Amino acid sequence: MASHDNDPDAQLMLRVKGGDMEAFELLVERYKQPVINVIHRTLKDATEAEDLAQNVFIQVYKYRERYKVSAKFSTFLFTIARNLTLNEIRRRSRHPADSMEDDRPDAEDHPVKQFEDHKTASPPDATLRGELEEKVAEAVQSLPENQRTAILLCQQGDISYEEIGELLGVSLSAVKSLIHRGRETLKQLLKPYLKTGAWRPDTRS
């Protein structure tokens, strides 16, 4: 703990803990843009990034009385930002059908359309897509927490594996392992449905 005693931002946060609003405003001014940048890299939406950043600082102020100098202030702050960002990713997880195999050499640019070819042409395409997305979402929700979150983060666009690791607090190799295992599990879960239309989320085949 002593190694963080000289962190000027931690000292500002201790002043906030004591009710110093000027110190809080200094921290917001100093960190608002870096927090927005971190969130925006994940969500790809500038307005939502600003809104979520505001919520981050609301949480910082809300928990001021419990703050202890056990780490750098920036670690404390970005942990809150990471948790709120992950909560938002999970909230968006209703349609995770687009990029299960986006980095595999044999994956097509449009995996959903590839899956749809297994279906008969009688129902409308929109119905098939909606049904597939529902089954994929259900399969994703059945994954272990870290695998599920890593898969969902992959589907956000340009976020790198390194950035996923920062958000999850794990190494690059762990991110790759989580995504690989998650995709393999999803393929096994979805295989019977794609072949027969039957949905058995507990399948082991």
How is the secondary structure organized here?
Blueprint: H1 8-17, H2 21-43, H3 46-62, H4 73-91, H5 111-116, H6 125-141, H7 145-154, H8 161-168, H9 172-196
Helix pairs in contact: 1-2, 2-3, 2-4, 3-4, 6-9, 7-9, 8-9
How much helicity do the residues have? Answer: 55-70%
State the helix count: 9
Q: Which series of helices and strands comes N to C?
A: HHHHHHHHH
| Global mean pLDDT | 76
- Can you summarize the main beta sheet? none
Structural class: mainly alpha
CATH hierarchy class name of the largest domain: Mainly Alpha
Low-confidence stretches: 95-123
How far apart are the termini?
A: 50 Å
Question: How many strand units?
Answer: 0
**Shape label:** elongated
Describe this structure in words.
It is elongated and about 65 Å long. Helices cover 66% and strands 0% of the residues. Helix 2 packs antiparallel against helix 3 (46-62), helix 6 (125-141) packs across helix 9 (172-196) and helix 7 crosses helix 9. Mean pLDDT is 76; it is low at 95-123. With 205 residues, it is mostly helical. It has 2 domains: 2-91, RNA polymerase sigma factor, region 2, helix turn helix motif (Rna Polymerase Sigma Factor, Chain: A, Orthogonal Bundle); 111-196, Arc Repressor Mutant, subunit A. The chain is built from 9 helices and no strands. The protein starts with 7 loop residues before the first helix and ends in a 9-residue tail after the last helix. The protein has helices at 8-17, 21-43, 46-62, 73-91, 111-116, 125-141, 145-154, 161-168, 172-196.
